[in-house]
Specification:
- The complex is a heterotrimer of chains A (about 110), B (about 1000) and C (about 180).
- Chain A is built from 2 helices and 6 strands, in the order E-E-E-H-E-E-E-H.
- A 4-stranded antiparallel beta sheet of chain A has the order 3-4-5-6, with helices on one face.
- With about 110 residues, chain A is an alpha+beta fold.
- By secondary structure, chain B is an alpha+beta fold.
- In chain B, about 25% of the residues lie in helices and about 30% in strands.
- Chain B is built from 27 helices and 51 strands.
- Classes of the chains: A alpha+beta (about 110), B alpha+beta (about 1000), C alpha+beta (about 180).
- At the B-C interface, strand 9, strand 16 and strand 40 of B face strand 7 and helix 4 of C.
- Chain B: GO terms for molecular function: sarcosine oxidase activity.
Chain lengths: ~110, ~1000, ~180
């Protein structure tokens, strides 16, 4: 059972205090978007064996959504950061790259 | 015979006897006994029958690894099957019965399977119960059910209590032997928060039995001193009778504490399930001795050498007067020596090795014990107990050189480290050729959230089998002051997987690998011949290593035999996956406190007690319990519902609507936010006004609905469905936190702050006016408006909204006044004919009005346009959640099924779940369909069946007669009609 | 006006700890960011405490202010004073972006008192009580429902939703049964 530290309240919350929210950093496509864009927004999800960015809500705590970088194979957690982030923080990306030299990067 | 010795027994207290029954026979033992030791003390060699062949079985082991001696324990509400006698502490009044036999343990009909064994080979079930198909139900299944299963299912409700407890530590140490104790001492003295658990009732593990000397002291003394030192450390917690069941991600451990198994009925919880989060886990679980595979190794009286030693030293119980020891290693000589020292006979030690050089064989010989090198047990003689062994050459094919009379056999095939906790989260193993076992690979540990090693493993569990090596291992891994044990040099063991080496098929069919599942050497070899090359497949095909013991004794022997049959190396064959629990955990412990009244949270409205007191029939709505109807004496539910509807339509009814979601949305951007959330416009709603709105998900499918009211310039209150309250609040917060975080909007879920009561019916206004306190007239408070004020002296917000179609007020009051307001309304309403109505009346009344219900008319694939709700979708808005989704071609298609009303030609009710059939059949041979019913009821108001449903063409089909299917295969003809069955012009609600 | 009633009528249980349902207490959920300059004074005026830091609760007599999230505070005060406090908040916050909602009736409040009070909660909550600081407000779950608590005097004050008051009382009762002490 995972532990993730909520970046808002500092609690090292266990999985039962959290609710999952799937892939992070999706770009919303609304009216006017092409079928391909909308399909990507709605349905195309990464399923990597390795580094993954995902959304979690501290549901039984402060109620805030946050983002986590996690290895889906080993369950190593590289870091958590606020949901109000367009992309993973640069220092977190550097940390991941150092731990997983073969990681192809965030984009 | 097995018996109690006159003296000795380090764990028993001869001054305190305990009486118990086994199969109704009254027996007695001592405090400190296990059920196993006390059965043996009473010469109860035969304790059960095997699962498949119903062979007589006795006790093999002395601990958690016991495969055979499973009994039904206790009676009534404390009955529990499959309890291992070796881990059951004896207490006065214990009752146990043996399993897997009929009619009796001594005479069992099922033993016929034993004679038919050649017809019940590996994969028997798969091969036999295939064809013909009909035979499964009528022939095979009844037979399998009759003979399947270990033990009996408890019949009565459980009478004991269980609970969870959460704990946190730096180090969680499993195993209270000398390695675990020393590890705890080192870490505890260094200041770490330590929890040390031991599955048995005693500290010290095997060292005291083996006669080890530690720090110059007898092991018993060292253990006592160390436990005392640990008890003085405030940062160390010690727990006996606590079995670490599994290691999970990020240092999570489950451990089952048997709090009161040995003191039933003393008021304490029976078990406590610990949910532990550890910085690091240290496994010091020791090692388990392996049986040897020789013919007849399952006959009662054949035991592990270490178990024989345990019974003699710990409990002063001798399994036999004459015990033959058979081994491939030096350690088993300790058993021979212990037996001899206890004054018992050891006719011979049969050692598979040809050259014996160790100190222990020398000592045994010096004591006058006959030692035979290079020899094997060809077969064990006896039926329900051992009568002797036939001896031959280990290198031979089974030619008998000599028969030796004996009544017990102590066997040792070497030791296997307990690597379960290391392996649960993918710690890897290496094959240790010298000791012929798998041990942890220190280079490939399981890892935690930081990518660091999560589990360490020390002592015998790490392959360091002697006390000296185990303690050196602790020092090497954890440091601390050096503790030394006297090293007794042991010569190398010899891997022996089949005894004798060249045994033929007749012997192999009697060599048991897995006692519990009756898997023999011949079964594994057959599986290999039939192509089962993977150890995981072989396990499932043969059942090797399944059931309650999960192959603690059998796995290594089994996979070694498989490797031999495949002509492969053991490490290439590998092990099956180790999974929690380490030993079985009762369901009660897993359920914890979640039983009875607190099985799950039941949400209750402030008026819940009133509903119960007035005979409400309650139905679950999510976790809420809501009044479905209020039956009166002599009424069934249907009659009660019909009465409640007719009364609300004729007089006035009251509904507890407190469960409806209520969310405040406030801020400079709140209007803009609600315009994104709802399909229609909410930003232009006037203060004091109400508006019905729809919410969709991004795919465009309808997800919730409700009335929105505007409280002030910058604040709105959104009503959601009962089930939608938390979900929609979460949905709002998701968008505000993760997408539009620069918008200035706050939300607050105030669902439970207010009790809400719908007062509906022609007399509704009169009831409110009787209570008095505010103007609720049509002029001051017209339809779709609200006002704050008081009624009967209670603070209220009164909404003129209607889900019933009647003149209706929905009144909110702070929850702590809810009951007072409800009772005041009931009292005021007496003269106007008020009656409470429940959720079913609410459902039917809204259906009579053609109002949709989330979850009835919607199922996650329905868009508002399908429900003719286009009027609630803004055409002007550039964007709202779901707009893009609804533009997809298949959602905009005219072929979609759309809402209409239905009436049967006979006035009957269309069955729930019916489809509207169309011509022809689809590719699967099923009738084509053109729609389905979504809500269908008997309307007491209209005195006929009414329904809503989705049909291809929707309202364009008005007047068509269509056919609904029924489960019985017939069809029901119905006419497509307007779904608004009652008060089409809405005059009543507007009144 | 009639007296408000607590969900369980101030039920009690005596086990190895004492469980008491208290209240109703006045409670206000106040949402605003801590950098809004009006906020500190609004809280001070309403309940007399300073603004709590992350995960803290500031107590002043029978009033308190707890940190619930980076933009949410829970104000606690006598039930009858809730209306006046709401007005004070509205006055002090003025046009500053905020949301204040009375939630007194949406909650049930319990006291768990006794030397081993932490053990009662340790059976229900995935929380390390050894590292729970004095004056720390912890939001978590108690078995299957949301709960918040803090150490106060000889025990803990536990807050949950009103609708599950009976369930939480059941949990606390089960966990405080005599003979089930953890140590």
């Amino acid at each position: 059972m995972l532990i993730l530290e909520c970046p808002y309240c500092g609690v090292k919350a266990e999985e039962t205090e959290l609710s999952p929210g799937y892939e992070a950093h999706l770009k919303r496509f609304g009216p006017g978007s092409s079928p391909e864009e909308f399909e990507a927004y709605m349905f195309a999800r990464k399923n990597p064996k390795g580094v993954h960015f995902e959304r979690w809500r501290h549901a039984y705590g402060c109620g805030k959504w946050f983002l986590a970088a996690r290895c889906t194979a080993t369950l190593e957690v590289f870091g958590t950061y606020p949901a109000q982030s367009g992309e993973p923080p640069a220092d977190l990306q550097a940390k991941i790259k150092a731990k997983r030299p073969n990681w192809e990067g965030y984009k | 015979m097995s018996t109690r010795l006159q003296k000795g027994g380090r764990l028993i207290d001869r001054t305190r006897s305990a009486s118990f029954t086994f199969n109704g026979k009254r027996l007695s033992g001592f405090a400190g006994d296990t059920l196993a030791s006390s059965l043996l003390a009473n010469d109860q060699m035969l304790v059960g029958r095997s699962f498949k062949y119903h062979r007589p079985r006795g006790i093999v082991a002395s601990g958690a690894e016991e495969p055979n001696a499973l009994v039904n324990m206790g009676e009534g509400g404390r009955f529990e099957p499959n309890q291992r006698v070796t881990t059951t502490e004896l207490f006065d009044g214990l009752t146990a019965t043996s399993q897997n036999h009929w009619p009796s343990l001594e005479f069992d009909v099922g033993v016929v399977n034993n004679y038919a064994a050649r017809f019940l080979p590996a994969g028997f079930y798969y091969k036999t119960f295939m064809f013909p198909r009909f035979a499964w139900k009528h022939v095979f299944e009844p037979i399998v059910r009759q003979s399947a299963g270990l033990g009996k299912v408890p019949q009565g409700p459980e009478v004991d209590r269980y609970e969870y407890a959460y704990a946190f530590c730096d180090l969680f140490i499993v195993g209270g032997g000398i390695a675990g104790l020393q590890a705890a001492l080192v870490a505890g003295q260094a200041g770490s928060r330590v929890i040390l658990v031991e599955q048995t009732a005693h500290w010290g593990g095997r060292a005291p039995v083996d006669g080890d000397v530690i720090d110059g002291k007898p092991a018993d003394q060292w253990v006592k001193d160390t436990v005392q030192a640990l008890e003085k450390l405030p940062n160390v917690t010690l727990r006996l009778r606590t079995m670490a069941s599994g290691v999970y991600d990020h240092g999570y451990v489950l451990a089952d504490e048997k709090v009161a198994d040995h003191t039933p009925g003393d008021g304490r919880p029976r078990h406590r399930l610990w949910r532990i989060r550890a910085g690091k886990i240290i496994s010091a679980q020791g090692a388990i001795e392996r049986p040897l595979s020789f013919a007849g190794n399952d006959i009662p009286g054949v035991m592990l050498a270490s178990a024989v030693r345990d019974y003699v030293v710990n409990f002063a119980v001798s399994p036999g007067d004459r015990t033959v020891v058979v081994t491939n290693n030096d350690d088993a000589y300790r058993t021979a020596i212990a037996l001899k020292e206890a004054g018992l006979e050891v006719p011979a030690i049969i050692d598979a090795r040809t050259s014996l050089t160790g100190d222990l064989p020398a000592k045994a010989k010096a004591m006058g014990i006959r030692v035979e090198a290079g020899r094997a047990v060809v077969k064990v003689k006896g039926g329900k107990r051992v009568t002797g062994v036939s001896i031959g050459l280990q290198a031979g094919e089974g030619a008998v050189l000599e028969d030796i009379a004996c009544d017990a056999v102590a066997m040792s095939g070497g030791w296997s480290p307990v690597v379960h906790l290391w392996s649960h989260c993918a710690g890897k193993l290496v094959w240790d050729e010298a000791q012929a076992h798998f041990r942890p690979d220190p280079k490939r540990p399981p890892t935690n959230q930081d990518g660091a090693a999560m589990v360490a493993i020390v002592g015998a569990a790490n392959g360091n089998l002697s006390a000296a090596a185990a303690l050196a291992d602790v020092a090497a891994q954890l440091g601390g002051s050096a503790v030394t044990a006297v090293e007794v040099p042991e010569a190398a063991m010899l891997a022996v997987w089949i005894m004798p080496q060249g045994a033929g098929p007749a012997l192999k069919m009697k060599m048991w690998l897995d006692y519990q599942n009756d898997v023999k050497v011949s079964d594994v070899q057959l599986a290999a011949r039939e192509g089962y090359t993977s150890v995981e497949h072989t396990k499932r095909y043969t059942t090797l290593g399944m059931a309650t013991d999960q192959g603690k004794l059998s796995n290594i022997n089994g996979l070694a035999v498989l490797a031999g049959a495949l002509n492969d190396q053991i490490p290439n064959v590998g092990t099956t996956t180790f999974r929690p629990p380490y030993t079985p955990v009762p369901f009660g412990a897993l359920a914890g406190e979640s039983r009875g009244e607190i099985f799950q949270p039941l949400r209750k409205s402030p008026m819940h007690g009133w509903h119960e007191a007035h005979n409400a029939y309650l139905e679950p709505v999510g976790l809420w319990r809501r009044a479905y109807c209020y039956p009166r004496a002599g009424e069934n539910h249907e009659q009660a519902v019909n009465r409640e509807i007719l009364n609300a339509r004729a007089n006035v009814g009251m509904l507890d609507a407190s469960t409806l979601g209520k969310i405040i949305v406030k801020g400079p951007d709140a209007g803009r936010f609600l315009d994104m959330l709802y399909t229609n416009v909410m930003s232009n709603l006037g203060i004091g006004k109400c508006r019905y709105g729809l919410m969709c998900n991004e795919q465009g499918f309808l997800s919730d609905d409700g009335v929105v009211i505007r409280l002030s310039e910058d604040s709105w209150l959104c009503h959601t469905t009962t089930g939608g309250a938390d979900r929609i609040h979460g949905w709002m917060e998701d968008w505000l936190q993760c997408e539009w975080w620069d918008w200035k909007v706050y939300t607050a879920n105030v669902t439970e702050e207010y009790a809400q009561i719908a007062v509906a019916g022609p007399n509704a206004r009169k009831v409110l006016e009787k209570l008095g306190g505010m103007d609720v007239s049509k002029e001051t408070l017209p339809f779709m408006t609200f006002a704050d004020g008081t009624l009967g002296g209670l603070p209220v917000r009164v909404h003129r909204i209607s889900f019933s179609g009647e003149l209706s007020y929905e009144i909110a009051t702070p929850a702590s006044h809810g009951l007072a307001l409800w009772e005041a309304l009931i009292e005021a309403g007496q003269e106007f004919g008020v009656m409470p109505y429940g959720t079913e009346a609410m459902h039917i009344m809204r259906a009579e009005k053609g109002f949709i219900m989330i979850g009835d008319e919607t199922d996650g694939t329905v868009i508002p346009q399908d429900l003719n709700l286009g009027w609630a979708i803004s055409k002007k808005k550039a964007d709202y959640l779901g707009k893009r989704g609804q533009e997809r071609t298949h959602l905009a298609s005219p072929d979609r099924w759309k809402l209409a009303g239905f009436e049967t030609l006979t006035g009957g009710v269309i069955p729930d779940g019916s489809y509207i059939i169309a011509d022809g059949h689809n590719a699967n041979g099923q009738r084509n369909t053109q729609g389905r019913v979504t809500s269908t009821y008997y309307s007491p108001t209209l005195k006929k069946g009414i329904a809503m449903g989705l049909i291809k063409g929707g309202m364009d089909r008005l007047g068509d007669v269509v056919e609904f299917n029924t489960v019985a295969g017939s069809t029901v003809k119905a006419k497509v009609v307007d779904p608004v069955f009652y008060d089409k012009d809405g005059e009543k609600g507007n009144a | 006006m009639r007296n408000p009633v607590s969900p369980l009528g101030n039920a009690t249980f005596d086990g190895f700890c004492k469980i008491r349902e208290i209240g109703p207490l006045g409670m206000i959920s106040l949402r605003a960011k801590p950098d809004v300059k009006e906020l500190a004074k609004a809280v001070k005026t309403a309940v007399g405490t300073k603004l709590p830091a992350q995960r803290r609760i500031e107590v002043a007599g029978d009033k308190a202010c707890g940190w619930m999230s980076p933009d949410e505070y829970l104000l606690i005060l006598p039930y009858a004073e809730t209306g006046a406090a709401m007005e004070a908040i509205a006055r002090e916050m003025g046009a500053a972006h905020h949301l204040a909602a009375a939630v007194s009736d949406a909650r049930a409040v319990f006291r768990v008192e006794g030397e081993k009070a932490d053990q009662v909660l340790a059976k229900l909550c995935p929380v390390d009580f050894e590292t729970l600081a004095e004056g720390e407000l912890r939001r978590t779950r108690a078995a299957q429902v949301a709960a918040a608590f803090w150490k106060d005097g000889d025990g803990f004050t536990v807050v949950c939703f009103r609708s599950v008051a009976g369930y939480v009382m059941g949990l606390l009762t089960h966990s405080a049964e005599k003979g089930s002490e953890l140590a």
